[in-house]
What does this fold into?
Amino acid sequence: MIVENEKIPFDINAIRAEFPVLKQKIYGKDLIYFDNGATSQKPQVVLDAINKYYSQENSNIHRGVHHLSQVATSHYEEARTIIQKYINAPLQEEVLFNSGTTAGINMVAFCFGELLTEGDEIVISAMEHHSNIVPWQMLCERKKCILKVIPMTKKGELEMDVFDNLLSNKTKLVAVSHISNSLGTINPIEEIIEKAHDIGAKVLIDGAQSIQHMKVDVQALDCDFYAFSGHKVFGPTGVGVLYGKKEILDSMPPYQGGGDMISKVTFEKTTYNTLPHKFEAGTPHIAGGICLGTAIEYLSKLDIDAIQKHEYELAQYAEQELLNIDGLRIIGTAKNKTSVVSFVIEGIHPFDIGTLLDKQGIAVRTGHHCTQPVMSFFEIPGTIRASFAFYNTKNEIDIFIKAVNRSLEMLR
Amino acid sequence: MTLEEKQIQIVEEFGIFDDWMDKYEYIIELGKELPIIEEADKSDDKLIEGCQSRVWLDSSMEGDKMKFVADSDAIITKGIIGLLIRVMNNETPKTIATADLHFIADIGLQEHLSPTRANGLASMVQKLKMSALKAI
It folds into this structure.
């Protein structure tokens, strides 16, 4: 369990030693992993927890009378509590396990969407990941609702004065990302939440890119929903969390039917289980949930302020060094940014750079990053994106810059 | 030279490189040399949309042999296309349709032909073989 104020001082070498994958060589070169926006690496403590679960505790949860089932159930529910405390959710049952951010958003789009009627409006932003666009489009088609989009500037900042005008008494939900995955912009979600609440709309925050970089307090934010993925926060793939306010979750119909989500089933009528089980039909990703708890516990012991500072310095340093390269343009120059650096180089296809960096042991992402509207807005086919985590170093950035230059010599 | 002999020749050419970057340097040179499809001729029916890079492919018959021209917006993709076309050009539709393109794996570039690579190359090979099948 979390012991408050027991923080481990930020020591980059000690931290790197926790991540076995970083010791690898790729094509004979030391791995430099700059694709943290896509997924994060896992510390040893999480790997050990996965191994321990499957070798000592594997059992189905919630219904078993036997010892293993009780152990697994209690660890699964403890993980929920760890996550509840980390995001400062008021109640344990407001923390719903699912398969990831996408699942969380789709669940809200379906179940909260059931409460909407024709002509109701949903507001998203111009920099959303496809996962926070398509579920709302599907909902709008299903319920004849209207989707509105907060535009952004060429810097990659939301046009907040336009947002004010988009809000009306028809707005039922505002769904925005905390941090843009392709631009790195940290959106002013406090202001968005407050303004949306002023007109009676609910707010969903796509936290896929934020919780690994900063402290998230759902009560301080006062968001109605907050979704994130386990694998981006040093936990396993295939597990994620949706936080939702109890009174809203209670008002929503269930998502999928199945085991665990019922109270009583007859052929005539079924009554549903209480939160969180109402939204957790079927056997969940038990190992995933438990080990996400381990990952969050690991994160909670680190000094998040020091992490944020380190990551900010990495991004600043990378941008400064990259801008020395002829024809290079940073995409996403918002004032308030996280450790994501997206760029394009004149006359060079991002795929070529990505391929050559890979052969030099460097993992970046190239392409549209599941944000095709963002790429259309900037009139580019895609970007090269370096996204940093706290285990990355300035030395790695130096090697990366040299590798970009070497690639350019070959391509130009 | 048969299709198989062309494959063996390419594998030998790549045999002199023991470094990945040298291999790619060579692929990039091949990409730069490849005759391109003029912008005006890059119609949608020739386009193979990859998630990352895009590929254009056109085929025609000369006697009983097939001819291909192709292009891509990414130079590495273009270089690999150059290799594929070198092997497939001037062959009969039947030879192309049944060709086992082992040289790609032999020179260590199989990742580029994986359907998940999203560079359009896997779809290009499929389209190339389909056009050969239609011509049989």
Q: What stands out?
A: The two ends of chain A are 55 Å apart (CA to CA).
